[in-house]
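Course assignment 3, question 2. Fill in each field.
Student: A.L.
Task: Predict the tertiary structure for the chain below.
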Amino acid sequence: MSFSSKQNSTTVFCTYNSSLFRWFLDVTTDGSHLNKWEIEGFQFDPESMENDLKEQLMKFGAELRTKLLDTSQVRVMKYKHDTLTVQCILPKNGKDVIDQIDTVLAQHYGFTEEELDFIINYDIKYRMGKTLFGEEDNEEEGI
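Answer field:
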């Protein structure tokens, strides 16, 4: 991918690390592979974003980049005839910044507070359910 400016590349970096984009991948793909279709299928053009929102994403992008690098883990995998060293990035360590990114994206797309809450809490509230908090899901009551 190429970008016309650092601002556009940071805006896209933030977008593709957002919970909104993760939700899009969960509902449209197998959840394991990122292909050209997923990138092109997600409706986002950094040129269409208002400058004040881009400026916010510049700040959050720098914060997220630093947090992800600082909390990354180097893992060594040993095989019969070789060793592979991989730097693993753990997005959960940047959840607080990702939530701020999603708030900016919600403004860009015109989401309601309820829609933003769904995106930010999708994994916790909706995908994992209340069992994450030691509560039982009760489908009969619509909870």
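Instructor remarks: The longest strand covers residues 73-78. Strands lie at 73-78, 83-88.
Grade: pending
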